[in-house]
Design a protein that fits this description.
Layout (H helix, E strand, L loop, with lengths): L2 E3 L8 E2 L2 E7 L5 E6 L8 E3 L12 E3 L15 E7 L5 E7 L7 E4 L4 E4 L13 H4 L3
Antiparallel strand pairs: 1-7, 2-3, 3-4, 3-6, 4-5, 7-8, 8-9, 9-10
Bound molecules: zinc ion.
The site of zinc ion (ZN) has 8 residues, from loops.
């Protein structure tokens, strides 16, 4: 089983078949959002009372330590750590813009890109730290 870890506290944020996040929408309302542990699967689960608009920007937080997990690469991308059964870990970056499907997985050497909208974060739009991968 792949484990998902918070980059700040190393806590496990995967429970069963969900990766659990605290998110805050543009209206500054907070809720819990459950995402699939499958890279490239953009289904999500939330409580119906928590409103998410199309094109909303969600800030993602670790539900354990409450740290923002917005990446230092791009403000639209959140950062988590994915560790496989052998203990090999990769950095995963995914979009915090609702409806935008872009996920990047990197081991520091190469980048695996998933999602129809990943092209929005091309060489020119992302920070220097990520540019070396393209
Ligand atoms: Zn944490």
């Amino acid at each position: 089983m792949n484990n998902f870890l918070c980059p700040h506290c190393d806590g496990n944020i995967r429970v069963g078949d969900n990766v659990i996040f605290k998110v805050r929408n543009k209206k500054k309302q907070s809720g819990l959002l459950l995402l699939s542990p499958q890279i490239g699967n953009y289904t999500s689960v939330k409580h119906p009372s928590f409103e998410i608009m199309q094109d909303d920007y969600l800030e993602f937080f670790c539900p354990l330590c409450n740290s923002s997990i917005t990446s230092d690469i791009h403000k639209n991308l959140a950062h988590v750590i994915l560790c496989d059964e052998s203990g090999k870990c990769n950095d995963v970056y995914f979009s915090q813009v609702v409806g935008e499907q872009s996920t990047f997985t990197t081991d520091g050497e190469s980048v695996h890109v998933a999602g129809d909208d990943a092209g929005r974060y091309t060489y020119f739009k992302i920070g220097d730290k990520f540019k070396k991968y393209f």
